[in-house]
Amino acid sequence: MPIDSTLLKDLNLRHECDVHLGPRTWYGVGGHALIVAHPSSVQQLSALAARCHDASVPVYVLGSGANLLVADQGVQGVVVCLDDPCFENIDINGSTVTVGAGFNLAKLVLETAKAGLGGLECLAGIPASVGGAVRMNAGGSFGDIGQAIRRVMVCGASGQVYYRDRDDLIFSYRKTNIVARYILEVEFELVREDPDELMRQVKEIFLYKKVSQPLADHSAGCAFKNPTDDAHIPDKKPPTAGQLIDRAGLKGLRIGGAEVSPRHANFIVAHPGCTANDILAVIERVQDQVSKRFGVVLEREVVVWP
Prior knowledge:
Layout: E1 14-20, E2 32-38, H1 42-54, E3 59-62, E4 68-70, E5 75-81, E6 90-93, E7 96-100, H2 105-114, E8 117-118, H3 130-135, E9 139-140, E10 143-144, E11 149-155, E12 161-165, E13 171-172, E14 175-176, E15 182-189, E16 191-192, H4 195-212, H5 241-247, E17 254-255, E18 258-260, E19 268-270, H6 276-294, E20 303-305
Helix pairs in contact: 2-4
């Protein structure tokens, strides 16, 4: 089956063809997708997933685009956006918060803090959709999203919809054991706390990140995961990826329109005229130099399509 609008025939699905993906990411660079689909219900998504699976069509799920780099050649497949209101719902019932995967994470942090529900304030300043945040177990030195999750509704590649419960979930540094292609809805179990104190913590964490990170620049957040094996580094405390890049003298390294941020070495920022290839070249140069200097292979945190 060809990867064009005929693929979605009979699904009554809102979609666009030949879509420039760059503007839909925080980097603002990258090529086109053959189709971008916007399912308006779980049932419609399930049917779309089954159709693509049966036709062996590659599928990509696009959230907020905050942690994504799309290659200049684009993607030969279907990009699914969970931006319909049915995937952006939120329901607060006591200390349980159920939210759609397309809901904005920053908005969720604020709404739960104002409601006096603690557990997500540690995610202040992290740009993401809820689904994307769960997929990579978003977080930082203040905590991560996995610690507050009770249940997740998912959809497999072939269209099967089911739940993953807390006792079946594993969250670790920037990963989870959820293998289903689509995360649809997340249920959080939070704790009652003073809303004023929670808002104070949210503001404090956000200001800390604003001061230390180039949030105003075009980037995808941290480019690399922090190393977990510090055997080669004679420090008492394992160095972060940013510290290793800084020690390698790579702050300000620029290739084309891409640059290692002089403000935070683990951010690669895109200047006007930048291409995805420029960013990939900087990523590879950083990995090569850090490996040569310290024997540490930095793993990308930014997701690259395809």
